[in-house]
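Memo to structure team: turn this sequence into structure tokens by end of day. - J.P.
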Amino acid sequence: MDDLNSDQFDHGPLGFVGGASIRHIRYGGRPIKQAQTVPGTPNWGSGWKAGVTDAYQRYMTIGISGSVMPYRDAYLDLNPTYRDKYGQPLLRMTFDWHDNEYSMLDHIGTRMEEVAKAMNPEKYFRAIRKKGSTTTRVSISRRTRPAAR
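Reply from structure team:
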């Protein structure tokens, strides 16, 4: 992971400027609200309980924190419609992804997938934002079974 995080080179030939850092998250024994399950697990009931049991101590996420370049169509302003309880306008953020960020996500996502494959998981799931996608999660998740003793 640290070798990828020190990826300091000109990304221009790859079709983007900027870069990203990657990290892994192990969920371990955190409270139920943070219990992770593999995609497709029901949100509640016996199926969810079975999914939590199956993923406990065997599920992790590899995530991206990427740079976003400044664009004229990305800005903050005061919302003319919505106000807080004191009558002050709320902050409004206008933002959309651009080709540069999609290219960066594709490159870093491919590198993350290489890491996941090298870990020899039972399964891994790639959920990288693509143009036109509504997904907000940018990560590759993998699940492994403990080594037999």
